[in-house]
Amino acid sequence: MNIIETGIKDLKIIEPRVFPDSRGYFFESYSKLALEKQGITYNFVQDNQSKSSYGVIRGLHCQLPPYAQTKLVRAIQGTIFDVAVDLRSGSPTYGKWFGVELSEDNKRQLLIPKGFAHGFSVLSETATVFYKCDEFYHPETDSGIRFNDKSLQIDWKVEVSKAIVSDKDLKLQEFSSFKSPFTL
Asked: Which CATH number fits domain 2-177: 2.40.100.20, 3.30.565.10, 2.60.120.10, 3.40.50.300?
């Protein structure tokens, strides 16, 4: 596995080694041992999957302590623009975001540690997103930031007029109102 630094501490792109042949391809999408050899030592306990259509924006979500989650995200079908926002006070990149295209073709994954808000937009007709979490979901600690927060200025790569956002996500707070429990 190839680990690519993003410029934000602890936020990493993971590229698997793909073995194509006349039948298709093979790759290890996750290897605890391979990641541990590169200093990535999370214990993932829950897998989640969603399917969405073009223009859907999900996020920006996070779980608060004591149930904050690290996520390992990939698109197993279609293409998404995956975004993480640094919510760790004391971080030199606090309030900065990073985005990367994840697709069934590039097979990249984004490792998003605790202390980040996460979201994605769907760039293909449909996309199926699969992600691992190192903590179980606890609805009482569910939180997040509005996807279209003006201070973050995230380019979701979809036309605003075609964006499909849940009522729940439309009610999320602005970044300036978020009282971060995360520190670096």
From this structure: 2.60.120.10
Prediction pTM value: 0.96
Active site residues: 61, 131
Type of residue found at 91? S
Query: Could you report the per-residue pLDDT of 55-109, keeping only the tens digit for each?
Result: 999 999 999 999 999 999 999 999 999 999 999 999 999 999 999 999 999 999 9
Cβ pair 91, 46 in contact under 8 A: no
pLDDT at 44: 98
- Measuring CA to CA, which residue among 61, 48, 70, 80 is closest to residue 147? 61
Residue spans of the domains in the chain: they are 2-177
**Rounded Cα distance, 145 and 87, in Å:** 10
C-alpha closest to that of 76 among 16, 133, 12, 19: 16
